[in-house]
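Q: Can someone sanity-check these two? First one:
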Amino acid sequence: MVNIVPVHSDVTWPGNEGVIGVVGVAPWATLNFCQQVYSLIDAKKDWDYPRVIVDSNSKIPSRGRHLQLGERNPSPFIFESINELAKSGATVAVVPCNTAHILFSGWGENATIPVLSIINETVSCLSASKKRVAILGSKDLLLSGLYQHALTAAGHSVHVLNCQHQVVINECISALKVSQTITDSLYAELECFINVLRNQSVDTIILACTELSLIKTHSLWQDVKVIDSNEALARAALREINFRKDRLR
């Protein structure tokens, strides 16, 4: 484990600053998570950024294929990665994948370092006032009810997507996983879908798949509040490592 302490008064950082460990099960979402961590920081020098240790391992078994087809459970591999990150110096672990959190008890509860829940951190970003929320995520995530339970417990109401709209979201996720972009025709379908949500009094949308974070800056989200799960997890990770607040945007 590399442990570096500052030795010059011009090159310094807080002694209690921790290290973020990232288990990356999907490459583009993992890169987006790291980008979001760095974009939240008002750095003046390189050393103003935190240490981040990333295990980007796309060979970890598919969460969807495990849940739908009964193939290999990814939990032991995620758990092993978290503990390896801890041995390398990580003081908190994150898994930037919402669907993986269906299996959280298998990899997050007995790890050697704290592991943040992307579900809890995302829901905590909603204001105290009651919202009507649409959850855009994988079919498996929606079937699990994780977000629905957390949102209703916090007093919010949940808009249920119809089958056609869920198909659009699934297609967007699949495209983003391999190429970090979607086609113009998919953008058009997504835009029509978002307009339907507005007309049905949805005032908040949760990007409950970290692949969807890749297109959150697109203009189609205008006039609706968007909560990005990857950004929520990034903010929480910085909080958990005691990152200095005067350097946060």
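And here is the second, same format, sequence then tokens:
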Amino acid sequence: MPRLESRARARALQALYAWDVRGEEGLERVAIRVWDDLGIGPEERKLASQLVGVIIKHSQAIDAQLADVTTNWRLERLGAIERCVLRLAAAELQRGETPPKVVIQEAVRLAERYGSAQSARFVNGVVDALARRMGRL
């Protein structure tokens, strides 16, 4: 079974994805509904909600940072999985509590699991570039 942190990242990604494709409700409300529907436990929910909270508070700044490193790709043109994984990784880098190499590895793993090998390669390059631009690598 994956570690608690990895499971929480996956839960945060599920909430982000549901919010991204629905687009009508606030992220916090969508996250709570998704986690309630899936019966997510309190420890996973706490960690996932911390990541989602960073995105809620800093969504414009996160999207601007991602736009800077995704040259030739507008965020709205990316697939929903890639966009959500990138936002999640950017939020985790911004929190600064997880080593950047771990953030990159986990983002790649999520992109592979929920997207494709091509998604994983793209995410790897973008998150690495973002971490470097933020001075974290």
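A (reply): Looked at the second one. The chain has one domain: 4-133. Residues 42-69 form the longest helix (28 residues).
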